[in-house]
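lol ok so funny story. i was supposed to be doing the assay writeup but got distracted and ended up predicting the structure for this chain instead. priorities right. anyway since i did it might as well share w the group, maybe its usefull for someone
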Amino acid sequence: MASMLDRLRAAQPISSQPKAAPAALELLVKETCAQIAVEQREISRETLEYLGVHAQQNIPLENFLFVDTETTGLRGGAGTVAFLIGLGQFRGNTLQVTQYLIRDYHQEPLMLRQVLPRIEGAGCVVTFNGASFDMPLLDSRATVNRLQDAYRVPLHLDLIHAARRVFRMRIRQCSLGAIEAQVFGQTREDDLPGAEIPARFFEYLKSRDEGLMDAVLSHNFTDITSLARLMLLICRLHEKPLEAGHQQDIFSIGKVYEKHGQVGRAAACFRACTDRDVKVLAGLRLADMYKRRWDNPEAAAAYEALLAARAESPHVYTALAKIYEHRMRQPARALDIVRRGMLYCAERRHISAKAAEDYAALEHRYLRLVRKVEKQKHGILKQVESQIRPVETPEGAN
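and the output, tada:
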């Protein structure tokens, strides 16, 4: 019987190169083009900052890489594999989509060796919910296949967050499908639901029926083209927000400007909101923004405009009273505002406990302001009296 040493000597060395897949099971690489109207040739650094990407300079449109994966599981995890990776990149007005589909698990490293260099070489990767799913999954698979050292992720724009900031006020559920339907006005027909895609791949592995993957490839292609269109739209809205067709979107972009300290742009967005419901929210946001920045005349004018429009609330009365009392040194004007606020809350005290609390807070402020105004009046009166001198009457005058 051969010894263990003899068997080890007779063993063939393990090749470091992956074995070639049978011809019938080669990695599928599919190239498809989509025509998308393009207005800008690059995305500015400032616009990318609004979207949450800290770029050092403007990025040409051709340097964005749109990435979407189809996987064996929807929750990730160590056993989840991306069996299809779609990449989209602009070439002029054409979006070139390349899809990499493994026909069996052993082809995963072959696919990653083609995909990862393209991701690393991009100026910015664009995904939809990729920060939570796609990119961590690719990072995990690169590690499993010992490709992590050659993989460096560039700038990453996860559009789900930017889309929510712009559209969530109008579209409660900001899925890619909902955005397609309610923003682009297009509904997918005969589309394979994403929840059914893992089962479709497992069925393909058993049957080897290539036709089963057609719907998966189509779903992935549509995701990538929608991703590219969405990025172009969101960038344009941040550059020209007043061109948005819905005032909810204008208001939402105003909030983005406000967050980044762009007071003038934010104010223009808020003032452009004239529909009743949005106008009240925008007016309150405008007033609060000026108040936080200590622009007291503008803040007071904005709060006064809300009261004039019957957009009353305890917050408006209290904020305006504070500005007049503490910042503009007009306690009498503050007292008048508080008195009106008390009347407003008094009518609602029986409706809710919150209204009763607001009334009590305004009443406390009212009593303090009354004393302050009386003290101020008394001080002014004493000052006037001290300046009055009795007129001396000449002797002998009648």
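The chain has three domains: 25-239, 241-311, 312-381. The radius of gyration is 33 Å.
back to the writeup now i swear
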